[in-house]
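Page 42, continued from yesterday. The earlier attempt failed because a stray header line got pasted into the input along with the sequence. Redoing it now with the clean sequence only.
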Amino acid sequence: MGTPVRILGIDPGLRHTGWGLIVSDGPRLSYVAHGVISPDPDLALAERLAVIFNGVSELIGLHSPQFAGVEETLVNAGAQSALKLGQARGAAMTALAVGSVEVAEFAPRRIKQAIVGTGKADKDQIAFMVQRLLPRAGQVKADAADALACAICTAHYRPVVARGVA
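This time it went through. Structure tokens are written below.
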């Protein structure tokens, strides 16, 4: 078909950073792994960010992804929430950059459109479609489902992303 590409999807969050890894070989997608990085909420902010950075760095070392997709911050959630989420995104994206992984960023609406066909899909619809597209993933919690959806979106838009258009 082509050259298989390992794609890591990241759904950043200070409490739960979901991740999902797929292989894209042309139009064919294969599930590899998923999980959640969950820093202790009692840790100081800087320490929680370090847990996210170290967790993503460990994933890069274990799985050697060539591309990564990261969900952009939803600013409608409020300024304080957006700021904290942005810091979690920054920790994850820094780990990806340090690991020499090419990063694409996608708005939540674009990810939903790529997976469900509508930008207004809810988390249950995302999880349902991820399970249909990647049946080997099994039952997937919301944060990991969102991360796998981000990886799938990255696979769909990768040729455009590689040209720097996304």
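Notes: The CA atoms of residues 114 and 156 lie 8 Å apart.
Reminder to self: strip header lines before submitting.
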